[in-house]
Amino acid sequence: MAGTKGSEPEFEVNALVAQLVAVGAENARVLRGFIGPSRDEAHITLYQSLARLGDTVEIPREDVLYAVDAPGSGLGAVILWITNEAQLHVRKIQAESHRTTGPFSLREVNKGRLRMHLRSRSGGDVCTSWCDICVSECLLCLAQ
């Protein structure tokens, strides 16, 4: 708040929010990571973790609505707002262990500090979540 004028308070519009609304980012996906070498000039390669450089997201440059430096990142992380319709190419290199339990098969997936047991699947879509640093493979993405 900036102050009061008479008895009604004055509110300042957040500059970042104003810029995001101006570029139409109300329904955008938000990704955070480090921009690295890309396969071509038409794409941006986002490395979501410095510890897992094999996990990347290829984003068409034309689908990036806005970008800012990530606050508190002394290593150069960025936050990207991309169109919800963007065709992302996700590459994941991870160790997974599989086990069978009951009528269906479960696989154990480790993501950072999380350890999850997921049903095995034959395929799935790539989706992003609201936490702004995750990209996951899922059958039905409830996070969008």
Short description:
This protein is mainly β. It has 1 helix and 13 strands, in the order E-E-H-E-E-E-E-E-E-E-E-E-E-E.
Supply the key terms:
144 residues; mainly beta; 6-stranded antiparallel β-sheet; 3-stranded antiparallel β-sheet; 46% strand; extended; disordered C terminus
Account of the protein in words:
Helix content is about 5%, strand content about 45%. The chain has about 140 residues and is mainly beta. It has one domain (about 5-140). The longest helix has 8 residues, at about 15-20. The radius of gyration is 19 Å and the shape is extended. The model is unreliable at about 95-100, about 120-135 and about 135-144 (pLDDT under 50).
How far from one another are the termini?
A: 32 Å
Helix content: under 10%
- How do the strands line up in the largest sheet? 6-7-3-4-5-8
Number of strands: 13
Derived from helix and strand composition plus strand pairing, the structural class reads mainly beta
- Overall form: extended
Q: Main sheet, how many strands, which sense, barrel?
A: 6 strands, antiparallel
In DSSP terms (H or I, runs of 4 or more residues), the helix count works out at 1
**Average pLDDT across residues?**
77
What percent strand? over 45%
Unreliable residue stretches: 96-101, 121-133, 137-144
Number of domains: 1
What is Rg? 19 Å
